Amino acid sequence: MKAWLIAAALLLAQNTPATTLAELQSKGEIRIGVKENSPPFSQMDPKTRVLRGYDIEFAQGVAKRLKVKPVFIPIDSEERLNTLKQNKVDLVVADLTRTIERDKEVDFSVGYFVTEDRILAKKGRFRSEAALNGATLGVLASSSTAKVLRKDFPAARLVQFEDNPDISKALQGGMIDGAAGDGPVLAALRNSLPANLRSQFEVSEFSLGMNIFAIGLRKGEKDLQKAVNEALADMEKTGEASAIFERWFGLNSATPLLGRTFSISTRRVE
């Protein structure tokens, strides 16, 4: 019995996740929760089976500055907070919007991307916010967009999906009137539609509100939070952050934006 207890204790110690910066650096790696189907932020290349995207490059940049190897763990939208709280990952870099409600459950880094919620639908279907009333909209489960719609547009009917490919299928099949989410994600979703359908859809000109993406951490890990913030600020200072933006949102990218209207600091996104 005594030998069994010792073995169990050793196994438990081996499986206890690193939580402090010092422990992570001693271990030499950091587990990062990311999405596999959220281009241009993160996506699995079907040929190389390598994750690529804006979030992925930021995760790699942070890990490099923390002097640890990034170990990517695929997660769904609704799993983002729980994987942190259950010690399954050390960071979440998965187009995670910082909100008042989420602040109660996990800690956040400074923001590293600013975006707006919009609607993807057939051209002319949503010319103004008034058209949302009574409409059936597809949203990602547990997304901040869903919470905004429930609060500000209670007359809209929401259908929750696990990932963006499922939303795309529902939109093409006429099961929903539109897809609601982050503007760049919706632009990428439109670009992924079959060529004969792409021109029939558009992303709304109006927005539902602004979102700031930040890296999620477990509550109370102040040393790690400080190190992550300093890493993000260094990526801004060295120009790496703007170069990543240009690759994924520049004029020659698949999802061009009008320009980078924010910068990263250890205080906030400005």
TrEMBL record:
Keywords, sorted A to Z: Signal, Transport
Pfam families to which the protein is assigned, alphabetical: SBP_bac_3
Protein's UniProt keywords contain Signal: yes
GO biological process: amino acid transport
GO cellular component, one term: extracellular region
UniProt keyword annotation of Repeat present: no
UniProt signal peptide: 1-22
Residues in Solute-binding protein family 3/N-terminal domain copies: 29-252
Protein family (similarity comment): Belongs to the bacterial solute-binding protein 3 family.
PANTHER family in the cross-refs: ABC TRANSPORTER GLUTAMINE-BINDING PROTEIN GLNH, AMINO ACID ABC TRANSPORTER PERMEASE
Protein name: Transporter substrate-binding domain-containing protein
Source organism (scientific name): Chitinilyticum piscinae
